[in-house]
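Exercise (ungraded).
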Amino acid sequence: MNRPHKVYVKSFGCQMNVYDSHRMADTLVPAGFIETATPQDADLVILNTCHIREKAAEKVYSEIGRIRAVKEEKARNGRPMLIAVAGCVAQAEGAEIMKRARAVDLVVGSQNYHRLPDMVARAQSGERVIDTEFPVEDKFDALAAPAREAIAKRGVTAFVTVQEGCDKFCAFCVVPYTRGAEISRPAAKILAEVERLVEAGVREVTLIGQNVNAYHGAGLDGGDWTLARLLRRLAQVRGLLRLRYTTSHPCDMGEDLIAAHADLAALMPYVHLPAQSGSDRVLAAMNRRHTRADYLKTVERLRQARGDLALSSDFIVGFPGETESDFADTLSLVEEIGFAGAFSFMYSPRPGTPAAEMENQIPAEESNQRLQRLQTAITRVQRTFNARYAGATVQVLLEKPGRLPGQLVGKTPYLQTVQLMAPRNLIGTVHPVVITEIGSNSLFGELADAPALQAMGA
Ligand code: SF4
């Protein structure tokens, strides 16, 4: 390959994968790689896969097929290209991928991204490489820190992984098998990463983890820190305007985390708290370790701490044995909470999980029909939630240019997207915005402090 080498990373699934994709690209910088936006331009294509959604493996194989066509075209033009498969599907089915997809040059499991430069070098010399072992060393320690320019290019919001893996073993989920047991990064490492991001222009950081509120990392004082303790320290970072965290488990929503919502202005009043079902029978079968009443109680405590707190959730419909009455409980939970948004999925069995072996699998047609009904209910409560903000003034972090000239796109504290006309130099700042219109996917508004900004020459 001629220098500079170019890497194209395609990310599927959750924010953890988006974060990992950035870190993979950063880790390849010392090996002479820069990021590119298209596979056609790349010397190395990494598919960072996700195992959560339905038919994940099939989707990976069809994506490999598309990339293989690019690879073959480039080979005809004398420009070799490598294909790598990373992420949860790679972790779970690495050997099978190598067997079935001859175009794949390397497979790297979700815990081994720090070994990529070495793996790529071996693949460049013709070896087909697979590494899906769970390593003994800490991948976060070994991963390269992002360069200042790379951070600035990615915008004013960033994800920071603070925790990985899960010990909960929900009956439908592969994460405990693909990402392994819970581990938490030490607070000092997280603080250093957040400070570096803020210094490069990031204004909002979302702490991420499969089970982020189970965070228990080594604290700056040598003790064990909870997520709340970590948030309190990060809220003191100068220049950091907003903090968020995701994804949480209802059982780990401790008193100190709830209190942090009352105390920390930088901590946004928005919690993604997957419920999965509104039925106690289904929750027990899912091994969720909480009941509907526990969930409602947690929401009540959160709202007591912070009156305007918005909630989002995940739901699975058609879990084995789910009756129409169980499903009605899910619908009623959606109405009762009045979510700001929610993701909903049709249950599909994941090999190796207990639910895949359960009897009473629900026919796809029935699950699909329930999914449509649930999505209608979610859209309705989301619209009701958004409608509350018509005419209101909300604080918006201006994040990036919009599609129209002179337009910017930002986010409210409740993660609603707002489009408005505003000068580009306001990107990265928070401004009061009057909401003038509620669209189906975003809100529209006007800067409330426009006259003051004009007077200041902004
Ligand atoms: S809490 Fe349950 S759904 Fe979430 S990652 Fe762990 S096992 Fe999967």
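Further reading is listed at the end of the chapter. For now, observe: The CA atoms of residues 138 and 331 lie 42 Å apart. The mean pLDDT is 91.
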